[in-house]
Amino acid sequence: MIHVILPQHLRTLARVGSEVTLEVEGPVTQRSVLNALEARYPMLCGTIRDQVTQQRRPFLRFFACEQDLSHEPPDAPLPDSVVSGAEPLIVLGAIAGG
Amino acid sequence: MSNVRVLVGTRKGAFILTADGKREKWNVSGPHFAGWEMYHVKGSPADPNRLYASQSSGWFGQLIQRSDDGGKTWHQPGTPPGELPAPGPPKGTSNKFVYDVSAETGKPLTTHQFYDGTQHPWEFKRVWHLEPSLTDPNTVYAGVEDAALFRSTDGGENWQELSGLRGHGTGPMWQPGAGGMCLHTIILDPSNPDRIFIAISAAGAFRTDDGGKTWTPINRGLYSKYIPNPTAEVGHCVHHVAMNPLRPGVLFMQKHWDVMRSDNAGDSWQEISGNLPTDFGFVIDVHAHEPETIYVVPIKSDSEHFVPDGKLRVFRSRTGGNEWEPLTKGLPQSNCYVNVLRDAMAVDSLDRCGVYFGTSGGQVYASADAGDSWAPIVRDLPAVLSVEVQTLDSEKSTHGG
Q1: Which residue in the set A9, A40, A50 is minimally distant from B36, CB to CB?
Q2: Has residue A98 been placed in a domain?
Q3: pLDDT tens-digit readout, A65-86
Q4: Per the structure, how many domains does chain B have?
Q5: Which of B35, B62, B90 lies at the smallest CB-CB distance from A9?
Q6: CATH of the domain at B292
Q7: In-domain check, residue B396
Q8: pTM > 0.90
Q9: Could A47 and B88 be called an inter-chain contact, meaning their C-beta atoms sit closer than 8 Å?
Q10: Distances (CA, A) of B118 to A64, B114, B146, B156
Q11: Is B59 a member of any domain?
Q12: What residues of chain A lie within 8 A of the CB of B60, using their CB?
């Protein structure tokens, strides 16, 4: 099972706690995790990546295992400890005021 | 007994203010969608319990919210209210606004003018204004930035662009105003279902007479000295347009500078700024029962977005313009430096017409006597982006504001 930690506003939208657990089929990548997240919580469609271009929203970052994965290719495998469920994939809002 | 429901969008959430017909004691509900920018909240004239809201964020993009019970509960259209959806492919497309670039239905406009005059690709940013149909609760129009008009006929689940507007051919001459290149005004003609008026900053006003297939710029008579050709067909920074449904051919406009009126559905405009202390401003609205009574809130200038002389004054004309009187009773008359944005004024349709407006300082003021006197409903909300009002008569709305 893959663990994903969402920022506060997306937890409210999806009506979940700080962490969600997802079953991901096939290779565990940013894309497959986000596909599974949006399938389970369709209210999040378009909030993390653009509905049309599938590009990560510019003010969001992806962290895991103390690494910034934001600029990794969406189909690159996520770290083993994320795949095993030992570590979460963290979706984080950039600190930009407001 | 009639009630009123005031729908307030702010920089950090939405609020719903309700009162009976006396409009003296108010109940405040909110913040709904706390922390999000709520550009606009508006109710369906055909079903007053059906509300639509534009929710957006620089981090998470655009969302559409819908209420089917007058604002008690909300859900994203297509997502069941109050429960998680069944597993399966995502159905959440209520926030999917895709510009039409097909050769068949929309001429593939790819650029508009940017601030520096260069051409810039069209990029969706947010929904500024939601205008529910006058007759069908499931049909709603959305005015978006970068400027385009979308329509949903399934309660906001899916959106299609009315691409004839951008396909009009003048798109490369449209340019953003200070707030972005937004389509902020949508007026549906109650006497002609095929006629819609819209306005864009900074392109101008447009009208369709065939349900949105084709559009005509309606800017003759506008004079804007901040564009190369002050009388150009497009390029004018129209801030807001208002219409009294009793006289759909008469339009009132607050332009960047200048207050204007048209008596021929926008075919031509005349200036009616008259004795206003400044004719810059954003809001304009019309009395519900007196079509020649109009309201504006003059703002000092385009570089000083606050009221002049530290005085918050609504100006009312009972003569359709040119002759204006300041309305000050109950409004701060010293050390006040707030702004009132373009969608932040509305009128109810009670016998004694109520007028409402919200400020950048978080106050929402109400007048239950057509502007003669004012009182704050709330004083300390986040900056107000929009104000709409529903007049509810025996569980039914009669006017959408």
Answers
A1: A9
A2: no
A3: 999 999 999 999 999 999 999 9
A4: 1
A5: B35
A6: 2.130.10.10
A7: no
A8: yes
A9: no
A10: 41, 5, 15, 34
A11: yes
A12: 9-10, 47-48, 57, 60
